[in-house]
Design brief:
heterodimer, A: mainly alpha, 0% strand, flat
Chain lengths: 61, 138
């Protein structure tokens, strides 16, 4: 089994991507709505990731 | 009493969904394939499988159920259930000896979370398959 080293950012991006795909697939009723919801979820994940990252950086001083 | 009778009458028959839900647990996305939703099934299978494999490649550990104080019980039993929800992926990993010992390090920690998250995403897929099988959803 190959070993993989990911940074926190890379791991969080991948987590956001696959979670968004599943959330998009299971929540809405039409394909267009599913795509839109999945993309929106991914954007929210990214916004939270970058926002919290900056918050922690600024909080550390 | 009358409400209970009504609720029982409204509940869908178990025969309509238990096979689908069991299959959806064993192989992520398979419930959707069985219900003739191959596109959605493929996306679910790919998402759960890749997430699980990434967790394994990051040398994430599988939770073993442990009891003690409340927090320990919640984390270890909850983590075990999350791992178990990946179905065949979890079972094969344990049976073939790919389960890793718990190691210190941030990458291993991400891996452990990826393994649990893959199972939790499969729980969502199982609920969706249930709703399709019972006619609550298209």
């Amino acid at each position: 089994m190959p070993k993989m080293n990911l940074s926190h950012f890379e791991a969080a991006i991948l987590f956001a991507l696959f979670s968004s795909v599943v959330l998009g697939v299971i929540t809405k009723r039409t394909d267009a709505d599913r795509l839109r919801y999945g993309v929106r979820c991914f954007a929210y994940f990214l916004a939270a990731l970058i926002g919290l990252g900056w918050l922690m950086k600024l909080g550390h001083g | 009493m009358a409400t209970n009778v009504k609720a029982q009458a409204a509940a869908p028959p178990a025969r309509a969904w238990y096979g689908v839900v069991l299959l959806a647990w064993l192989v992520p996305g398979a419930g959707h394939f069985l219900l003739k939703r191959p596109g959605r099934g493929a996306l679910l299978l790919a998402s759960v499988a890749i997430m699980f494999l990434l967790g394994l490649m990051m040398r994430g550990t599988m939770f073993q159920p442990q009891t003690g104080d409340v927090l320990t019980t919640i984390i270890y039993c909850g983590g075990f259930l999350g791992d178990l929800a990946s179905g065949l992926f979890y079972l094969l990993t344990v049976w073939l000896g790919y389960a890793q010992p718990d190691m210190a390090g941030h990458v291993h920690d991400y891996g452990t979370k990826f393994l649990v998250a893959a199972g939790l995403l499969n729980v969502l897929a199982m609920v969706d398959a249930y709703e399709i099988a019972t006619g609550e959803k298209d």
